[in-house]
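= Paired protein data =
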Amino acid sequence: MVTHECLHEERILSQSKAIERLDAELIYKKERLDDLKEDNRRMEEKIDEIKNCLNKVVVKSKSDDDKLERRLVAIETEQKVIKELTNQNRADFNLKLTVITIVFGAISLLIGVLSFYFTFMK
């Protein structure tokens, strides 16, 4: 029976060591899992920060787009006004040129009539 008891003791001791090893692995894995949970929490915080930054960028981009669109409309309006003024100035210039041409024509005619008058009528 001594052999039988030794075998049982060895088996009990072996199983006890296996249980201790498994307990140590369990403790290590729990600690590692806690570390991973903490890392995951930190990553989620950083992801939230990144999301907030992206949202700010999107909002700023929309705001800048609105500003650019308003500026574009203002530039287009200025361009139309300048074009209208240019066309109006061109028309005014053509009118003035026509009036000056008519005045010079009238002066030329008057000079011709006066030349005729002084040449043949006196």
Notes: The chain is about 100% helix and 0% strand.
